[in-house]
Amino acid sequence: MLRQKKPQNRPKQTPAQIVLVLIGTLVTYLLVTGCVFYALHACWQWQYSRELGEIRRRGEPVTPADLRKPPIPESQNAAPMILEALRKLDDQLTRDDTERLIDIASGALTGPEAARQAGAIVGPQRWRIPLVREALRRPLCRFPVDWESGMDASFTHASLLRRMSYVLLAEAVRHSEQGRQGDAMELLSLQFDAAQSLAREPGMISQLCRYGMLQNGTRTLRAIVARHRPPDANLAGLSEQLKEIDLADSVRTGSLGERVM
User: Fold this and answer.
1) What's the gap between Cα 126 and its chain centre?
2) What is the rounded distance in angstroms from the CA atom of residue 254 to the CA atom of residue 257?
3) Residue 123's domain spans which residues?
4) Are the C-beta atoms of residues 104 and 217 closer than 8 Å to each other?
5) For a tag site, which of 90, 152, 220, 245 has the least CB within 10 Å?
């Protein structure tokens, strides 16, 4: 017969020993977790430094201060003159005025009534047009933006330019309705130049404003061509100007400002 082994009596752990085991387990867990976290953090820091290095090698901004480099001499910067030409425009153009200008520019309102309303609304703002034309003769443009404010940064230049574009487009329609197709095309060209003043602005708000101005300009051009069929000689210069507009890099340019904020 097989003899059954007597169960061995194991010594019971005291409460102090149980506490020591728990503390040892906790310390081991913390040490392992800390090592894993440190390794992941070091890997992330290495990847982050590598990405920053790549950005800097491409000559792109990394900090808000970088967005103001290189500095533009005021004598070459169109932005101060544009802002001076558009001062108080938001106060002087009512919402109803702006909506009527949009109707005229889009072709929703045509004929003598469009010319009459355009003249009435644009008249008090007409002094701004030669100032904008003069400003856009400068070779560079950078509008003042307080990038250090982050998401609170103000882009007042975008709303002012958008409103001024309606003034230019409605005035172009007025000239066209009165038979001055050459003057109408010149104002359309000026409006496209104003849109292109935003081409190098590092912010999506500015780039979206640029898109809107270009779209509004082409819509007005289509409306004028459909209604009055300007001579080819009047359209030739405008056609060449539109061919030179390149939107391929606009999303990357706009994202530069968003990234540093």
Assistant:
1) 28
2) 6
3) 74-260
4) no
5) 152
Task: Give the sign of the dihedral formed by CA 90, CA 210, CA 130, CA 137.
Answer: positive
Residue 78 is encoded by which pair of tokens? Answer: 């169109």
161-209: pLDDT as tens digits: 999 999 999 999 999 999 999 999 999 999 999 999 999 999 899 999 9
- Determine, yes or no, domain membership for 78: yes
72 neighbors 261 (Cβ within 8 angstroms): no
How many whole angstroms separate alpha carbon 170 and alpha carbon 101? 6
Token pair belonging to 116: 């009459």
CA distances from 231 to 177, 186, 234, 235 (A): 14, 13, 5, 7
Q: Which residue has the tokens 């390149």?
A: 246
Structure tokens at 153: 């940064």
User: What is the pTM for the complete model shown?
Assistant: 0.79
What is the dihedral angle through the alpha carbons of 201, 205, 208, 212, rounded to the nearest 10 degrees? -100
C-alpha 103/C-alpha 97 separation (Å) is: 10
What residues are paired with 77 via a beta bridge? 140
The amino acid that residue 3 corresponds to is: R
